[in-house]
Amino acid sequence: xxxxxxxxxxxxxxxxxxxxxxxxxxxxxxxxxxxxxxxxxxxxxxxxxxxxxxxxxxxxxxxxxxxxxxxxxxxxxxxxxxxxxxxxxxxxxxxxxxxxxxxxxxxxxxxxxxxxxxxxxxxxxxxxxxxxxxxxxxxxxxxxxxxxxxxxxxxxxxx
Length: 159
Fold this sequence. Notes:
Number of domains: 2
Distance between the termini: 33 Å
Radius of gyration: 20 Å
CATH topology of the largest domain: Jelly Rolls
Structural class: alpha+beta
Number of strands: 9
Number of helices: 3
Helix content: 10-25%
Order of helices and strands: HHHEEEEEEEEE
CATH class of the largest domain: Mainly Beta
C-alpha cells in the first residue's frame, strides 16, 4: 500500500516539475500515464485530445483569394490557426470567418488573422476564440505562386 501511494506522489511531483497544472498532475498521477509512442514531458496522448482540421491542403496557390470549404468546429473547445508557407514570391494573409450554419453568411472573427507572411519556409500559429459553429479560412496570396497549407487545430471538448 505504501509503495503504491509513494509512486503516486512521485508521479504527481514529476508532472508538476514538467509544467502540468495541479489538476492535470493529480489526474495523471491517479489515472497513470497514457500509452504513446515516444515520451514527452507530460507523457500525454495528444492525438486523443487534439484535432487537426485541414482548411487548405498543402498546395501551390496563385495570386488571389482562396476561401476554404465550411469546417464544422463544434467538437472543438479551443482553436488555433496554423499556417505553413513554403516557397513564396509575394506575401500571404490568412483570416478566419465564422457562421452559425454551413451555408450562411460568414463574418470575420475579431483578432483571427495572420497578415503579411513574407518569408518562405514559415510556420505561424495563432489562437482565436470562435463564437459560432462553422468556420472558413480566407487565404490571400499577392504575387503568387506560394506553397501554402492552412489548418484549424483544436482541443476536443470534454464529453
